[in-house]
Amino acid sequence: MAKPPSPKPPKHLHSSDLRGVAQLATQATASVARIAEGVHQSVWSSLGVPGGKAPGQTRGITGLVYKSVHGVTRLLGKGVDTLLARLQPALDAAQTAPAGSPQRAAVLAALNGVMGDHLLESHNPLATPMTLHYQGETLNWQALPPMPHATGKVLLLIHGLCMNDLQWHTQQNGQVVDHGETLAATLGYTPVYLRYNTGLHTSQNGHDLSNQLEQLLTHWPTPIKEITVLAHSMGGLLIRSAFYYARQDGLRWPGRLKNIVFLGTPHHGAPLERAGNWVDVVLASTPYSAPLAKLGQLRSAGITDLRYGFVLDRDWQGHDRFQRKPDARQPLPLPAGVACYAVAATTAARRSTLADRLIGDGLVPLHSALGQHDEPQRNLVFAKTSQWIAYRTSHLGLLSSPEVTQKIVQWLTPASAPGQGSN
């Protein structure tokens, strides 16, 4: 009987992925043990049995058992990580996996969106650094690749939560849809794609993007005359944050920024995150379920920033991001001197109170995507001709809609550009 062929390792995985997953497995084991101990002590506390030195800890023999579990887990995790760290250079040299595999990029993007802040804090190799990409190559300021077709009109494309730069290339009914490539072909833009850790606070990424764009301006092979930004979802909050901090730091690139097109950006937050915040409250309402609230707190800083659409450091610094509280953001208008356009989507066939406030595109309500707010100081004023609603379209459908492409081309074509958005 013939032996079945030995399974081959997935081509899209790297040796560093193995090390990162091992770290996560170790941390998950420790977290589950802490939750189990917390539930255990909650039950004992209801019977009047005192706990250990810290809240959620048991005492006596039971406490010793949990302490042993924690200790063994840490030792095993440290040993595995040390071994894989030593083996990683040899594995990297032998591997043939393409660096830009769409499968690997999609998995890493989702993982970073959910817990990217934790990955960075724990120095996990799965954490995604912020990089700019041109024609599939990462831009290294010390050694730029040949760029004979680069123009002075740069189009920066910024993806949304749990996504990556490769997902701008989509299909609809067998037809390829790529907003960036169409703008390059019709209007002479040079597309540059941002890849970043969407699990970090928006303002953290804002500082980083601001510096990246200053480097782009310095090292681009031809003088940059214009920067236009096409931002999907969270990407719109990111470019507003970057512009604010660039102005504060006196950087040069804001002077080249001409247009920003926002696609489904939750300028005033997304109700799904606010609904998720209720999970924290419900789980913490009884002593038996309180330890399980840690599961609800797995959401990254990037996700909790979407509760109200945070863009500045002061919006989140000094606050417990899992504590339910009213919207206390610092009002921030649209970037001054920049033409701003907003595309909002709704899965409904026409506008209504229900469609605007509750349905929206499935993730972002219409009023949030259009920058509209009941408080005048928070209202983002887009010119009437700079707003457009895509009906029967989902949040992700904005990336694969030919109609959205046509509208962007219409707005950015000089002869038909309606002018700058109001602030």
UniProtKB/TrEMBL annotation:
<dbReference type="InterPro" id="IPR012908">
    <property type="entry name" value="PGAP1-ab_dom-like"/>
</dbReference>
<feature type="domain" description="GPI inositol-deacylase PGAP1-like alpha/beta">
    <location>
        <begin position="150"/>
        <end position="284"/>
    </location>
</feature>
<dbReference type="GO" id="GO:0016788">
    <property type="term" value="F:hydrolase activity, acting on ester bonds"/>
</dbReference>
<dbReference type="Pfam" id="PF07819">
    <property type="entry name" value="PGAP1"/>
</dbReference>
<dbReference type="InterPro" id="IPR029058">
    <property type="entry name" value="AB_hydrolase_fold"/>
</dbReference>
<protein>
    <submittedName>
        <fullName>PGAP1-like</fullName>
    </submittedName>
</protein>
